[in-house]
Amino acid sequence: MEHNSVVITEEDKKYMRRAIELAKLGTGAVNPNPLVGAVIVKDGRIIGEGYHRKYGELHAERDAIAHLTEDAEGADMYVTLEPCCHYGKQPPCALAVIEHKIKRVFVGSDDPNKLVSGGGYKLLRDAGIEVITHVLKDECDGINDVFFHYIVNKTPYVVMKYAMTMDGKIATREGYSKWITGETARNHVQEQRNALSGIMAGIGTVLKDDPMLTCRIPGGRTPVRIICDTHGRIPVDSNIVKSADTVRTIIAVSDKWIDTSDGQEKANKLNDMGAEILAVPENDGHIDLKALMTELGALQIDGILLEGGGTLNESALKAGVVNEVDAYIAPKIFGGAGHSPVDGEGVSLPDEAYRFRLAKTEQYGEDVLLIYKKL
Ligand SMILES: NC(=O)c1ccc[n+]([C@@H]2O[C@H](COP(=O)([O-])OP(=O)(O)OC[C@H]3O[C@@H](n4cnc5c(N)ncnc54)[C@H](OP(=O)(O)O)[C@@H]3O)[C@@H](O)[C@H]2O)c1
């Protein structure tokens, strides 16, 4: 339990909000590291600002120090995450804070990374620096769901995303889903694709829609595309395979299927076209999603946008790998036998439901986005 000896003022919150804004500028570029922003303040003026810009580059505290407009002796630092105290790709940030004789450090989130976890605070306090923790903690924690999950579990943070009508359909009775939501909501999905390092779909969606699953924001980052395709049914002339030589693509298949002669032949063909084949064990006749998540975590894929459809979504819920559900709802009704975001048999009793908590609601044009997080 941390004890703060100072009262946090509106000014302090203002500087921490600025640090949060800066942290978000690293979106899509820092994975599997956290988003972190820092602001250095002296005599009521900002004298240095920085953020973690790119994986492997300066951490926020050192970036803010590198941008100082004057000496930081006696200044306050506002940083969204506990400064690190270990040698990784960069030397410990806490040391830079000490060297520059910063007097007080205001921190938002604690770092659950076992290599840090309280060690950053200790290093600063042992050097006589006053550390004020949990300043706008919820807001600071909110920008790093992916990092907090990945650093502890070593598996990706999975966001199940779907666009549905008011009557809960993600496709018409003929299986058509273009488009359910309007352009503003679809643009927001592009931002999510930029933010997460992986994107996943089932082979059913590939066969029906022939999607690209790329990020179309100019200068944005396309996540690694992962297709769940137990028996390698993906057509070699699909958009995914045709673009696999330029966009990293993983086809997750069954380890039994890949040992067959058909499997070997198709896997070689897909490999030649630039796709990576990831063989995982089967569970219930499909690839085992838990095992797949462990493999993807080992490949440093820290977050996944799961873009269904309903068959894969149901399996992901059953496997317990879904951390967040982002449901876009359009002001339309398809009715009848349209597809649901989650297929399968469903539960028998309301008490057996998969449970989430509503974390946020947002509006994009005429559509709403409900963000639910795992309980
Ligand atoms: N509105 C939206 O947001 C949205 C988003 C996506 C899709 N859609 C719509 O959804 C429809 C496609 O949905 P779908 O349910 O037919 O297909 P899907 O969920 O995309 O793919 C299902 C297939 O994935 C494969 N798979 C591999 N591992 C699996 C696992 N562990 N669990 C379950 N399946 C696994 C299975 O085939 P194998 O076992 O042979 O591999 C299965 O048949 C399309 O009409 C598409 O337009 C809508």
Overview of this protein structure:
The protein has twelve helices and 16 strands. The two termini are about 25 Å apart. The chain has helices spanning about 10-25, 60-65, 95-100, 120-125, 135-140, 145-155, 185-195, 205-210, 240, 260-270, 290-300, 310-320; strands spanning about 35-40, 45-50, 75-80, 105-110, 130, 155-165, 200, 225-230, 250-255, 275-280, 280-285, 285, 305, 325-330, 355-365, 365-375. The chain has a nine-stranded mixed β-sheet, with helices on both faces. With about 375 residues, it is an alpha/beta fold. Strand 7 (about 200), helix 8 (about 205-210) and strand 8 form a beta-alpha-beta unit. It binds NADP nicotinamide-adenine-dinucleotide phosphate (NAP). NADP nicotinamide-adenine-dinucleotide phosphate (NAP) binds next to strand 6, strand 7, helix 8, strand 12 and helix 12.
Summed up:
With 375 residues, the protein is an alpha/beta fold. It is built from 12 helices and 16 strands. Helix 2 packs parallel to helix 3 and helix 3 packs parallel to helix 4.
Key terms:
16 strands; five-stranded mixed beta sheet; nine-stranded mixed beta sheet; binds NADP nicotinamide-adenine-dinucleotide phosphate; 375 residues; 29% helix; alpha/beta; single chain; globular
Number of strands: 16
Q: Helical content, roughly?
A: 25-40%
Mean pLDDT: 95
Shape type? globular
Question: Can you tell me the residue ranges where pLDDT is under 50 for at least 5 consecutive residues?
Answer: none
What is the ordering of alpha helices and beta strands? HEEHEHEHEHHEHEHEHEHEEEHEHEEE
The order of strands across the largest sheet is 10-9-8-7-13-6-14-16-15
Helix tally equals 12
Query: Biggest sheet, open or closed, and with what strands and sense?
Result: 9 strands, mixed
Terminus-to-terminus distance: 23 Å
Calculate Rg over CA atoms: 23 Å
